[in-house]
Amino acid sequence: MHRRASTLLPPTGPTAGAVTQAARWVVPVALGLIVIQLAVRTWLVARGNFYWDDLILIGRASEESIFSWDFLMHDHDGHLMPAAFLLAGITTEIAPLNWALPAITLVIGQLLASAAVLRLLVLIAGRFRPAVLVPLAFYLFTPMTVPAYNWWAAGLNTLPLQIGMAIVAADVVQLCRGEVDRRRVIIRSLVVFVVALAFFEKSVLIAPVAVATAFLWCLLADDRGARAALHSAWNAARELWIGLIAITAVWAVGYLALTSATAGEHSITQTIALMWRSINKGVVPGTVGGPWFWERWVPSPPMGFPSWWLMAVGWLVVIGAVAYALWSRRRSGWVIGAVIGYVAVLQVPLLWSRTSENTALELAQTLRYLPDSALVIAIGFTLILLAPKRSRSHEVDEVPRWLRPVAIAAVLAFIGSSLVSTVRFSAEWRDDPTADYLANARTSLSEAQDTPMFDHPLPLLVLLPVAYPYNQVSKVFAGLDDRPEFGRWTDKLQVLDDNGHLTPAEVTPRRTTEAGAGACDDPEITGPATIDLDGPLLDWLWTVALPYCANTDGELQIGLAGGDPVTVPVQAGLHSAYVQLQGSGTALQVRPLTPGVELHLGAARVGEVVRSP
To answer: How high is the pLDDT of residue 224?
Structure first.
């Protein structure tokens, strides 16, 4: 592969990236928009914290080797994302449960995505044109990209997807133009595609977006028609297309073999309903900076509830923009069809995998599946700028004098509307108990680090039991250095309450035993013994509250039928031990392990751990 001269240039004529004298101000404005976006996004994550899947990623990274196959290739609710797991694992290893580092990864990811999108739009347009600022501003500020950004686990998926889509689409435009080092560009695109796939399976859509971008660019840059454009796009990047197809095929085999995305009962009717709600209450309001109203049903993420009039305005803008493009630009229908196809049709596989009898249609209103759609809309807008005018003049820069101030006002109004939506989203996102719970729990666990502790679930408003076993405190806080050991016994029963504070706990008396016949100075347990319960137990994880009096320090083994016994240290004198046992039956089996240890047992309780009133 080598450099070759360009034989296909867009109707605008100038070389890609050239800055005309009249449009030198476009560069600082574009960079200024990116700076403003990053400031807003930094403010967003500074007010944010971990949420739901973030804690699952942290828990898995804290208990497994972050470089192991089981960790990297884990089927995370149908997602295959080894690179996202690796980055989350490295972050957790460096600073477990410290939000600062994940926040920095999100800001850096957004910077790379915004820079890649700016490069893409300029390459499509052929130069830094004022009109490029419109799709750029749309991508940078539309609320369609905010929810997935603010949630770390989602950002680890969608930001690499946006970066990869922008880089590969820009590269295919360069290949169509020619005058590039083809080998370098093709290798770069293939590497970026593989990396994006490693972060998120939806990155497989980078390939069709790249194909459509190349075809549409060639179609708009040449008057020979669709067949010639298809031929030009194929020839311009033949090796890249072959590589993308091969990588996609290999990845698809691995994805289907390693994940359960297709398992379970799915509904095409529900998929269509989700798709329509995503468009009507997400994409359409997003084109005018909405929704302005968000609502959160903790522990779910915020959902957008646009007003009827905002949806109506959005539909008017969308229909008006499509009609104007079709009326004023030849061949723009191809671009519009491609954008509609992506936003509507290509959402179907992902939404279909989310459907189930437990899926609410409000899922579509979280907008977390729309960042790539926002990017595709920006690409489509920029491509339409290339479409030949239906007027006599084909000079792109000849525009009515009134159009530029109107466009500036519209962009400013859109940015203002988007910022209103973003601020209100942030307020709802902060209405979550996770941040305070984690902060209080870290302090409480640090203060109690010398006392063993039973494992127990996080509050329901932080993480539901469907996340088991990663809704357990032993998983979420495993990476901390200053914490108690989580085990099967303790001499002080306490749990974290819903606010993350340690509080005394007790054992419910589901079953009890009678006190031993001896006394502290006349212990009855001198060897293996069976302590009868006042009734049978089902096979379950039970907690035993065992008061005892020991003649010396040592170890005691205690168990239930059908379960493994637990070794408990005992201390000389009058004390209590709390033990978690798996099993069933009608009696406790106890046996001193240390020679010479003898015990008198008080009345024991067998049940479950609850907070003391």
So the answer is: 84
